[in-house]
Amino acid sequence: MNLLSIFTNPYLWASTIAMAVPLALPAIGGTFSERAGVVNISMEGIMLISAFVSVAFSAYFHNAWLGLLAGVISGILVAYVFAWAAAKMYANQIVLGMAFNIFASGITAYLFNAIYGPEGTPFDTPKLPDVKIPIIDKIPIIGQILSGQNVMVYIMFVLVVLSQWFLFKTTVGLRLRAVGENPEAAETAGIDVVKMKYLGVILGGAFSALGGAYLSIGVLNSFSPEMSSGRGYIALAAMIFGKWTPVGSFLTSLLFGFATALSYTLQESSISKNIIMMLPYVVTILALIGIGGKSVAPAADGIPYRPKK
Amino acid sequence: MVKKALQSILMPLIAIFISMIVGGIVILITAKQNPIYAYMALFSGAYGNLMNFATTLTNAIPLIITGLGVAIAFSSGLFNIGAEGQFWIGAIVATYLGYQIKGLPWYLHIPLIIICSMIAGALWGGLVPGLAKVYTGAHEVITTMMMSYIAIYFSHYLLEGGPMMDKGTIPQSPMIQDSAKLSILVPNTQLSSGLFIAILAVVVVYILMYKTTIGYELRAVGFNMKAARYAGINVARKLVLAMGLSGAFAGLAGAVQIMGVQYRLYDSFTSGYGYTAIVVALLANNNPIGVVVAALFLAGLSTGAQEMQMQTNISGQLADVVVGLIIFFIAIEELYRVIMEKIKTRKSKLEPVGGQE
Asked: Keyword Cell membrane on this protein (chain A) (predicted)?
């Protein structure tokens, strides 16, 4: 196979974007959470729960949009519990994250078996629609890449821009960031630290849930246990490599999405896909140890804060 | 002192109790079965007879050894959550040396494998995450997690058409030599003399952490890093050492699993022992003896869950649900403090100070 022909194949670029969705959404979600000073490694678990809930509701009501809504609500509820434990109970956030991930992997597999049994989710479960964009659709190559994608792809584009604006141009965004950098000072300035932490974690849950729903009713119309397969952790990496910004997270997710798309395209070639799959993790370590520009976490990230009053 | 010891036992017990109740409610709603009957099936499946208990012990061995490693890191204030990857690295080295080296007697072959896999685990878990932490401040939670994924993909690379793949189409390594196999203790089970390695590891870690200067210094760093530095302890070196030791035990566990149970490496060879080991260390509050108890409990939970699935048709994944809940209820220890304080203030309102009539 000619190596160059791989890169001129519009399918590779289209699937790069498609593969970036379930990374970018939780990565942006994680950004909100960590900007508010809460490390949430349970993006993986929230994705799984949302993926399951989305499919279950989509199948039951025969409406993928209702499925998506239910998935997001489930993500918000789980994140709410996380926020309570992290902000009100000062729990160790890494330990919490582990608890949520183990719980999520267990409960989704358990309920999947209990409700659907070995046959799995119904075949006629509706999925979220693919969207053809007029005009762009007619442009060669670009049309093949940008049009006809799942609706979640376009939702992602909108959310990237909105998130960046929200975090860096609005008062609430400023307060959120202040809490992650210096909660004492933020509190002195009259900011409700606990409320901001809730906001950050819940936004994180909602975004991760969107990513999870995309896996089960965006790309497919079914669920299988462990279907998030570590994407929550790669999202964490994308967030770090993207320097805790929505646009950075998105661009890094594209890079990681490209690695994944490439590993599938190269399956027939001599380079092992497993070697390519390692790249996001290697890249993240390099980013963390300061090669290619230092990535610095919010100063109070992960430290439980006890309000003074 | 007694109160503190009581607390460290009481907390996990309360967490386990609440989690079992919540798990029971899940059973009641989703499977419409009697939870007590299900839990009895689980218990007898885990500890009910010699065969079941041997299986539980077999599953407990990697948890004990890896759990000890994670506990060393925890006591030094480090969060090694990449034990899974270090476990894989130990297993890869053990497998490679196990089938490559031929003609050695077992009393040389097995120690050689043990030493090499421990070094490999130590380098994987200690060198990169430890040095990165000390010199660039990269958080070990992220680095160990990333190293873990790299290890898992690396092993898949080795097995799926890579240099360690056996002849044929199944992605698995060749079988290790007989001289690299640990002997089986109970016939018709997989319980091997790896049990003695686990017990020895517990003793070694206990002595290391509580009876030596190094152990004291490691715990001092974990207790208060600034004070330790002030007391003249080389904190950076201790952090790297703690990560290295942590990785070494995870690597050893991988090797023991290969030599005692699996005899060859394949894609799904670990059942997430590295992740469960974190729970073990957490439940045990980093105490080496506690690690044994916690490992036996968690191994029993997974062994028993399979038996429960056969007897009651309740899916074994319920065990994960319960484990997740247990960690959650341990993590929110603050809640118990809040409740205790509420009870205390109510009591003091009922009984006025001074005992007036």
From this structure: yes
